[in-house]
Amino acid sequence: MELAVLKQNGEDTGRKISLSDDIFAIEPNDHAIYLDVKQYLANQRQGTHKAKERNEIAGSTKKIKKQKGTGGARAGSIKSPLFKGGGRVFGPRPRDYSFKLNKKLKQLARKSALTYKAKENSLTVLENVSFETSKTKNYITFLNGLSLSDKKTLLVLPENDKHVYLSSRNLPKAKVVTVDSINTYELLNADNLVLCEGSVSKLETLLLK
């Protein structure tokens, strides 16, 4: 497929770029997308949750009432989960939620996500993006030129650019990543994907090797 290449201000350069059908026009695999997104979200979890169980509660070990004659059930410890302030039964413990996925499956998931973006016409290719200073208003002007100021955008740069990244950081709907750190979740979460011309060739190298 071919897309027009735009300037940073949204004007047409008059050129077109050819996008690989092996990345932007495959048969999408929804299950691969599900697994890759599931892994991404699982890896974001700290897993530091903890609740004290019966043996970790600070409290007296004295028998709280006599065994018989009270008309109620036997009770041997104030730390019992049955009482207020007692330990929790099978409470959460610190754990690692991350799991492994094969490289080929992750590539398939990302190609599937890129295919969906291409089908939805939610893909924009720019000649280049660069700012002289790190100012939020620079990025707002940039989005206004592309008519994307009211949408969630994901800008993919061929390499890290400090000014572009810092200019976008205060905008809740704007995200800037490099080709090396692109992932399926962020691709699908964005309303519109903006690729720099230099990112396309790097993306093809990354996903077709």
UniProtKB/TrEMBL annotation:
One of its GO terms (cellular component) is ribonucleoprotein complex. This is Large ribosomal subunit protein uL4. The keyword Kinase does not apply. Belongs to the universal ribosomal protein uL4 family. PANTHER family: 50S RIBOSOMAL PROTEIN L4, LARGE RIBOSOMAL SUBUNIT PROTEIN UL4M. It comes from the Bacteria. Residues 46-77 are annotated as: Disordered. GO terms for molecular function: rRNA binding; structural constituent of ribosome. One of the primary rRNA binding proteins, this protein initially binds near the 5'-end of the 23S rRNA. It is important during the early stages of 50S assembly. It makes multiple contacts with different domains of the 23S rRNA in the assembled 50S subunit and ribosome. SUPFAM superfamilies: Ribosomal protein L4. Keywords: Ribonucleoprotein, Ribosomal protein, RNA-binding, rRNA-binding. Part of the 50S ribosomal subunit. InterPro entries: Ribosomal_uL4, Ribosomal_uL4-like, Ribosomal_uL4_dom_sf. One of its GO terms (biological process) is translation.
